[in-house]
Amino acid sequence: MKKAVTISMVVFSLAAGLWLGLSSLGMKWPGVDEAVVEKFAREANRPPQKRFIDMDQGDLLLFFFLAAGAAGGFVGGYFFRELFPPKSRRSSQDA
To answer: pLDDT, tens digit, for every residue of 17-38?
Structure first.
């Protein structure tokens, strides 16, 4: 237990330090769409078009992640016994 807490604190400290270091630089890193796809689209004389579902504004993308997590949690909980059988069933099946 102590080992898990120590490892999680080290990982958290490293992540927080990385986040603070990168946020202090104030640089905006372009995504793949901006850096690669839009560049090749402009070179091919195909200007970028407006997206069908614009997920840049608001919390729509967060809602999709929430819905997928809830669905995955429901399925994982429903089939928990099949995914992780009890040790007594596991040992009788191995023999």
So the answer is: 888 887 777 667 667 777 788 8
Domain interval for residue 93? 53-95
- Shared domain check, 59 and 36: no
Distance CA 79, CA 73 (A): 10
Q: Burial-class residue 41 by CB neighbours within 10 Å (0-12, 13-18, 19+).
A: middle
For residue 47, what are the CA distances in angstroms to 34, 39, 50, 53, 62?
12, 9, 10, 18, 28
Residues 44 and 60 in one domain: no
Q: Find the angle CA(74)-CA(79)-CA(84) to the nearest 5 degrees.
A: 120
Name the band, by pLDDT with cuts 50, 70 and 90, for residue 58: confident
Look at the chain and report how many structural domains it folds into. Answer: 2
Question: Domain check: are 62 and 39 in the same one?
Answer: no
Q: Does the pTM of the predicted model rise above 0.85?
A: no
